[in-house]
Design a protein that fits this description.
Two copies of one chain form a homodimer.
Chain A: H1 9-16, H2 19-22, H3 31-37, E1 45-49, H4 55-62, E2 67-72, H5 75-85, E3 90-94, E4 107-113, H6 122-132, E5 133-144, H7 146-149, E6 157-158, E7 164-169, E8 176-182, E9 185-191, H8 194-202, E10 206-212, E11 235-242, H9 249-259, E12 264-269, E13 276-283, E14 286-293
Parallel strand pairs in A: 1-2, 1-4, 2-3, 4-5
Antiparallel strand pairs in A: 5-11, 6-7, 8-9, 10-11, 12-13, 13-14
Helix pairs in contact in A: 6-8
Chain lengths: 294, 294
Amino acid sequence: MKENRYDDQTFFDKYSQMARSQKGLAGAGEWPELEKLLPDFSGKRVLDLGCGYGWHCRYALDHGAAYVLGTDLSQRMLEQARARHGGPGIEYRQAAMEDLQFPEGSFDAVISSLAFHYVRDFRPLAERIGRWLVPGGSFVFSVEHPVFTACGSQDWYYDENGNILHFPVDNYYLEGRRDAVFLGERVVKYHRTLTSYLDTLLQSGFTLRRLVEPKPPEELMDLPGMRDELRRPMMLLIAAEKRQPQGGYGYFRALQRYRTDASEQQCTKHAENPSCFQLNCTRKRSKILLYFII
Amino acid sequence: MKENRYDDQTFFDKYSQMARSQKGLAGAGEWPELEKLLPDFSGKRVLDLGCGYGWHCRYALDHGAAYVLGTDLSQRMLEQARARHGGPGIEYRQAAMEDLQFPEGSFDAVISSLAFHYVRDFRPLAERIGRWLVPGGSFVFSVEHPVFTACGSQDWYYDENGNILHFPVDNYYLEGRRDAVFLGERVVKYHRTLTSYLDTLLQSGFTLRRLVEPKPPEELMDLPGMRDELRRPMMLLIAAEKRQPQGGYGYFRALQRYRTDASEQQCTKHAENPSCFQLNCTRKRSKILLYFII
């Protein structure tokens, strides 16, 4: 069951009061770090999974994206997105991200902000995102940190006087549903380990480019409770890239260029070194044997 | 100051009673997972940082390594290593790993088991390991998990009856010295965040291959306390690979092979596409322009 808490009026009203809803990217503490991980959007086809108010969609378009598709389960979110960040080049679609379907290589970049911890199974989603991306395509996302989601309550552990003692971790390896409290309301989230996020990516055809656990920004350190955020990690930002097919893609681009000059060519893997390709060409009556090691 | 607790008689005696000292790899709960991350050692020059009793050195040699160097700060450890796992092809050297120096490309694989949390600065060490490795070389290590090292005490949080409540996390972003208790003795360890391990590697010329937080093995689940190890992550296993120099190494290997046939060549970066190299050759009086896209 995909829970749609954001279409609950009370929950949505509270969400709409948050700094990140009212001020957008500037109101999100992790944004300065997330922005650094984003790819160059120029001319790119971008998918934003769990787009919410559409702040990141707008950012991608403002930075040159050719086309942006934002998807969200919540109709209320998408109403806000269309009203605030609609227009040519941006499309919004109501759907659970687990149900989306696109042809292979439909996007040059996939982004997602704080949405994957609402998704029960990460591996099939990661594999599908891998197929939607072109080789070399970017996958950048933020999620709640496994340390933050493990216990379930997502709250500090206090002494009898209400002072914070520490942040509790429990049931770390028991992945799955957690009944968390967010904005004073019960919300179902899914805990998974760091291994499940990272090793799944590494084994699903992605290369990891960056991993950042964002600290609260220095300039916000005087806000109430902010200094305590140095005591626990709350978010995880990950930038990955869809790997080129093994030993192939770079070669085929090279071959494509070369073909314009060569009158004949034949490409085979090198018998002794599987990462090496042999290219046999006849060009102006010269037989040429080339090696590409990729 | 590099602390050398393992040359303290009391501490060493306790360490020598541990299952991993007495039974070796079979006595280390994380070994089945670590073994899967290790590279093919055939014909490789291997460096083991913090080699202890030399179990991993012996494993590398038994699996075809051409040469293995184990280093450790502790003389007592190395005495054990030489006695148990000495012989042709294995060398042991007493040194703090921060002080080691090797020429560039001296090793094909660097391994380290549960030693880096004794090292204060990871970044300079990672950078130096990157230089010691050949391009494509393997770097596989285990460390105590940042969740495990953050608080410092490395102990559960208990209720008044001595029952485990949860595992405490605190001061996560405050990296540095922790006075931990290990085997009932005070030991200085260094906490750092996951970001500091992984993002440092990614930004120091490594590609991440695998990341695993090993669970206690099923068959040990009936041992006292073992089931509680599902409640917190204690270790982090990382397999990385030294990246090929940007856009270069694959090209230069290709060039080297081609050079044997070509009478003249000149290599330049493509003006418009910096990931593309142009190779101008004269071969049997034909002018050839090739592109390598790496």
